[in-house]
Write a structure and sequence with these properties.
The protein has strands at residues 7-12, 29-31, 35-39, 45-53, 56-63, 85-90, 94-98, 102-107, 113-117, 125-126. The chain is mostly beta strands.
């Protein structure tokens, strides 16, 4: 299978379920109609990114075999019916998710996340280490 190094995909989060796979060595990336998922390189952890608004996202990490908490677990979001879209760009190092206001950059090796405004490349919040480190139990 010949996978391009950069893929631009326009997604509607309320559309019929769509599966996008990027067969890169570092990690796997896919999405469904509500969320985006990035797996650690060894598949032991998955980072779930769920958009609730142009500048509002929820991040969750689950170990292999664990279920993610339901969207309604913490009653912090008034509505789960966000209808805008997110641009997706992937390469061998990162997955970049961008709405009209927010850019979320995920390191494919460590699952470290940084947040930028949509018009900037300077992080406003950045993890030093992600939720995944090889050999972590």
């Amino acid at each position: 299978m010949n996978v391009p190094t950069k893929t631009q995909v326009k997604l509607s989060l309320l559309a019929t379920a769509v599966l996008v796979l990027c067969g890169c060595a570092a990690s796997q990336f896919h999405t469904d109609s509500r969320a985006f998922y990035v797996e650690s390189p060894d598949g032991s952890r998955t980072l779930r990114i769920l958009w609730f608004g142009d500048a509002m996202v929820r991040l969750q990490t689950a170990h292999d075999g664990e279920a993610f908490l339901p969207d309604s677990y913490y009653e912090m979001i008034e509505s789960h019916d966000w209808t805008s879209s997110v641009d997706v760009a992937t390469n061998s190092d990162t997955v970049v998710l961008q709405s009209s206001e927010l850019k979320v950059v995920i390191d494919r090796e460590t699952l470290a996340v940084s947040f930028e405004t949509a018009q900037s490349t300077t992080p406003i919040l950045q993890e030093k280490m992600g939720s995944y480190r090889a050999g972590d139990e």
